[in-house]
Design goal:
Elements: E1 2-8, E2 17-23, E3 35-41, E4 46-49, H1 51-60, E5 63-64, H2 66-74
Parallel strand pairs: 1-5
Antiparallel strand pairs: 1-2, 2-3, 3-4
Length: 96
């Protein structure tokens, strides 16, 4: 299955992400992306996207990860409702 998701490319403590169309069988870091569709810097909150290519891959049947989906809606590249992202709560420490 083809997915559109983030691929981390930044240094330690300086995250930067590519938005890639990649086969879901491969690891996100394996670098075997079909196409690079843009990039996103979460610290500066800036990025560059290829809206026509993103819409093409979605029309072909690529599934979009929840985080990328919400980002594309925020940047008005696609329309729809934001998806809820489940974040695991931190484990509570037991004081002994």
């Amino acid at each position: 299955m083809l997915k559109i998701r983030f691929q981390r490319v930044g240094k330690r403590n300086q995250p930067r992400f590519r938005i890639v169309a990649i086969d879901s069988r491969f690891s996100p870091k394996s670098g075997k992306a079909k196409e690079i569709l843009g990039w996103w810097d979460p610290i500066k909150k800036v990025g560059d996207f290829k809206p026509d290519r993103i819409k093409y891959w979605i029309s072909v049947g690529a599934q979009v990860s929840d985080t990328v989906w919400n980002l594309l809606i925020k940047k008005r590249i696609i329309s729809g409702k934001k998806r809820k992202i489940n974040i695991k709560p931190k484990k509570e420490t037991q004081n002994a």
